[in-house]
User: Fold Bacteriorhodopsin from Cyclobacterium plantarum.
Amino acid sequence: MYFVLLAEIIGLDRIINSDPVAITFFIGYMAMFASAVFFFAERASVDGKWKTSLLVSGLITGIAAIHYYYMRDFYLQTGSSPTAFRYVDWTLTVPLMCVEFYLLTKPFGAKGATLTKLIIASLVMLVTGYIGETSGLDNNIFWGIVSTLGYLYIVYEVFAGDVAKLSQSSDSPALKKAMFLLKIFITLGWSIYPIGYMVLPGNLLSGLFEVSSIDLFYNLADAINKIGFGLVIYSVAIKESKKTTAQVA
Ligand SMILES: *C/C=C(C)/C=C/C=C(C)/C=C/C1=C(C)CCCC1(C)C
Assistant:
């Protein structure tokens, strides 16, 4: 009895009926929530400046957990994509990810101006992406291209712009490794989103996948980029903190 009630509440009946999109919303919610708890708790195990990085990782996954809670509900009730919730989430979490990149390079002289450029580019990318997803068949390719320009600007900053130059001037192997992984996340991890977007009717991959699979792409990408990247920062933080403890002792 309790189980049936619980199953109803969390939408497990749909999940048991194996709706893969619903399953990923459900798992996404749990994973984001657990990660937020983990990042907040682990702040105690790292040194000063890394505490802020873990705080930001906790905020990113925490904000996403709340949105996944609502997105999962919306999807279960309507069977359609929770586009507005999705973009509200990204508008908060993507700039926070830019803060995360900035914090990584700040000890090596990153300036606030770089952060501002990254945030503006990400907002261009998201606002035009939202217009593309909601403005109908005829326009989604056009807005997708505009959005991609914002994305490519971020890729440029990380590979050849300010962020890249600063990380080259550092002699910390841990930071070098983090920057290398950051490049992989930005190019491979973030590229899953535009691929998902191309599933929209009238776009380049429409017909190849069902429209609802746009959420499969986005949910997978969110898990990789929000949790995965947070874990990368965490491992650098732990290594660097051990180093300073060793120096003191
Ligand atoms: C945690 C959420 C993240 C890291 C979201 C990232 C989103 C993108 C990189 C979205 C990119 C898009 C394009 C490059 C073109 C088509 C429209 C978008 C918004 C899906």
Q: What stands out?
A: Residues 21-248 form a domain with the Rhopdopsin 7-helix transmembrane proteins fold (CATH 1.20.1070.10). The chain has a mean pLDDT of 89. The chain is about 80% helix and 0% strand.
